[in-house]
Design a protein that fits this description.
CATH topology of the largest domain: FAD/NAD(P)-binding domain
CATH architecture of the largest domain: 3-Layer(bba) Sandwich
Strand content: 15-25%
Number of domains: 3
Distance between the termini: 53 Å
CATH superfamily of the largest domain: FAD/NAD(P)-binding domain
Helix content: 25-40%
Number of helices: 14
Radius of gyration: 24 Å
Largest sheet: 7 strands, mixed
């Protein structure tokens, strides 16, 4: 825990974990205030999980979620009331601690000099000078400028920064991301099957960011594309010549009634969160009989094959352990087909039949009661009416609905559905010529996978440099995506496709035939792709990913 003291009564910190609660009680904290909305990050427990653990330790917990950079006066007043009325000392937390520090600063605006508030923030490591305008202070708002600004330090953001530097060393690049840890998320399916250890999928941000970039460890509050500016939490401003947005997506755990209250217990798990993937493996090992459910929400989602990957690997373990005949396995898919590219469905159906899996289409998980071990699904009828269906479970693997991050959806860069509005071929924004986007946050109709980001990063790097006059021609992205469908331990159906579902194998059929389960494809997933990610993609090595220029 990285706890920062602002006053005797209040400290702030980045995201805390359930396991931290005993230490927080020992440190004397009597109240927690969560200022972070659920679903912002892949390693973030829900507030309901934190609150339950806090109750066990005799600590008060309050939920005051604030979108990054959107702290209102009403939020600040309520924060001040909490500080005044709840037992102290208090620990407030968000992603980085900045939102909590901002709430405190604004709550104290009428009670003490702004210079003292700024000094306390600085001592704790938070720059609060950007609040000068809101607090009627003559202090200058913090600003900086860079030739290229990248929002997001996930797979897409770091790969793009490295590809830019590989083409033009010495570029002035800033990467904005508040996270301390970078995750290899494609590995979490393997963690949930006991193949990978969770710690092998995580590294510190310092370890993976190129040393030549300026890392701005903050969250984005707003975009001002007409002014070529990004506004950070605390009202700091970063200006740019070229902007690249790769902010990922948001997991909407709260969209399923009752889910946040039961995640990580009562047999409810998800490989879509770093801390829950090991729980998936524990449940799979412990289940001796009963009902195992696997769910998939409406599209778009990150890695459309991941929900059924967990199902196949779990079923394979139960079969090897001689327990599969005593376990009813069911797949509840809100969509209408098993997999979006029809060429790969026959191979998958053979495994569905082999494992005895019951397929249920058009049913979306809408509520869950973990204590009662009951899940409720909703089906939308042709006339728009809905019907609900309830069933029991002993284990359920849940994939939450997914949407664009709030600060993207509310920005001028978003389309009507909230996603970043880019040209699907050039990845340039449709309205702002010096803005590009890639990765899960865009509205391109490709699969949202790390493999897609690997192909998109060189395209964006080339086109940004072309816009700066440093490269000839325009690079094109063809919609490539890949989904290694882990149908059993040791075999994979390697789905590779372009826009429109056109099959696009990387390897010749005699080596890996993607339409059939392959041992070599498993070795690719288990042994080759992780080092290719850490040592290749994130370092600007464009093996099998060089961009194609428009003719």
């Amino acid at each position: 825990m990285n706890i920062k003291r602002l006053t005797d009564a209040l400290s702030v910190s980045p995201q805390i974990q359930v396991a931290d609660l005993p230490a927080l009680r020992a440190a004397g904290f009597r109240t927690l205030i969560c200022n972070r909305p659920d679903g912002e990050g892949p390693d973030q427990p829900t507030f309901a999980e934190i609150a339950a653990a806090a109750r066990d330790e005799g600590i008060e917990a309050r939920y005051l979620p604030v979108e990054s950079g959107r702290v209102s006066d009403a939020d600040a007043r309520l924060f001040g009331e909490y500080l005044h009325g709840l037992p102290g000392p208090v620990l407030a937390y968000c992603r980085s601690g900045m939102r909590s520090a901002t709430l405190w600063a604004l709550s104290r605006a009428s009670a003490e000099p702004f210079a003292g508030i700024v000094a306390a923030g600085k001592a704790a490591g938070y720059d609060l000078t950007g609040l000068a305008g809101r607090m009627a202070s003559p202090l200058v708002v913090s600003q900086e400028r860079h030739d290229i600004v990248i929002v997001g330090a996930g797979a897409a953001g770091i790969a793009t920064a490295s590809s830019l530097l590989a083409r033009s060393p010495g570029l002035d690049i800033a990467v904005i991301d508040p996270a301390d840890t970078h995750y290899y998320q494609p590995g979490w399916t393997m963690v949930g099957a006991g193949v990978f250890r969770p710690e092998t999928t995580a590294r510190t941000m310092d370890d993976v960011l190129p040393g030549e970039v300026r890392w701005i460890k903050a969250a984005v509050a707003a975009f001002e594309p007409e002014n070529h500016a990004v506004v950070l939490e605390g009202c700091r401003v970063v200006r740019y010549s070229q902007l690249i947005v790769c902010a990922g997506l948001k997991l909407d755990w709260n969209a399923i009634e009752g889910l946040p209250q039961t995640l990580g217990r009562n047999g409810v798990t998800s490989n879509y969160r770093y801390d829950l993937a090991p729980y998936t493996w524990r449940l799979v090992q412990e289940l001796k009989g009963g009902r195992a459910l696997f769910t998939q929400p409406p599209m778009p989602i990150k890695c459309a094959g991941a929900p059924q990957k967990a199902m196949y690997l779990s079923s394979d373990h139960w079969r090897r352990a001689g327990r599969l005949n005593g376990i009813d396995v069911e797949f509840y898919n809100a969509g209408a087909v098993l997999f979006g590219v029809a060429d790969y469905v026959p191979a998958l159906m053979k495994y569905v039949e082999s494992y005895g899996i019951k397929l249920n289409f058009g049913l979306n998980l809408s509520a869950i009661d973990g204590e009662a071990k009951r899940a409720t699904f909703t089906r939308t009828m042709a006339d728009g009416a809905t019907e609900r269906f309830e069933t029991e479970f002993d284990m359920i693997h849940v994939v939450p609905p997914q949407k664009a991050p709030d600060f993207i959806a509310a920005s001028p860069l978003a389309d009507a559905a909230g996603w970043l509005d880019v040209d699907p071929t050039t990845l340039r924004h449709k309205r702002f010529d010096n803005v590009y986007g890639l990765g899960d946050v865009t509205n391109t109709p490709n699969a949202k996978t790390a493999a897609a980001a690997r192909k998109q990063a060189p395209v964006v790097a080339h086109n940004v440099l072309a816009a700066l006059g440093a490269m000839p021609g325009i690079a094109k992205y063809d919609g490539y995506g890949s989904c290694p469908l882990t149908v059993e331990r040791g075999k994979i159906v390697l789905a590779e496709f372009l826009y429109g579902g056109k099959v696009a194998p990387t390897f010749p059929g005699w080596l890996i035939d993607g339409k059939h389960p392959s041992r070599l494809a498993w070795l690719l997933k288990e042994r080759i792709l992780p080092p290719l990610y850490w040592r290749g993609m994130l370092r600007g090595k464009e093996w099998l990913a060089r961009p194609r220029l428009a003719e």
